[in-house]
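Both lines are retained for reference:
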Amino acid sequence: MSGEHSTIPDDVKLALKDYTTITALPVQWGDQDSFGHVNNVVYFRWFESARIELLDHFPTAVTMSGKGLGPILASIKCDYRRQLHFPDTVYIGSRITRVGRSSADIGHALLSRQQMQVAAEGHSVIVIYDYDAQRVTRIPEDLRKLFEGSMGA
């Protein structure tokens, strides 16, 4: 688990124990749409924050600097399970679920504190991009080992 994991409630840690990182985010009033629930687009912003926190968890030369090697999003999906409303806090568990030659899959579980239920599940695919060559490239061996090592956790 990452960040200020001591501020994450124990029951949330237990519910998301199979995830490498847990990202806590408050539901904002403005996240709701005219139907009175959190708009579907907001989940993708939350997954983005969680994805970045997960990638920051792995010490590597692959960075978000926009030069050299960096991860970029190739695909993202969300399966909505429950409606969310203000006020609430969501906890997003993130983990690497597959490592390929140049890509890796990230699984997300978004837990509502109010409901203590998974409200959504997400799946992201990142690729390692060589900004100097302007093309997708192999995952560096050190990062591959970190990703693969985290999958057994």
Remarks:
- The chain has a mean pLDDT of 93.
- Residues 20 and 139 are 19 Å apart (CA to CA).
- The radius of gyration is 16 Å.
- The longest strand covers residues 117-130.
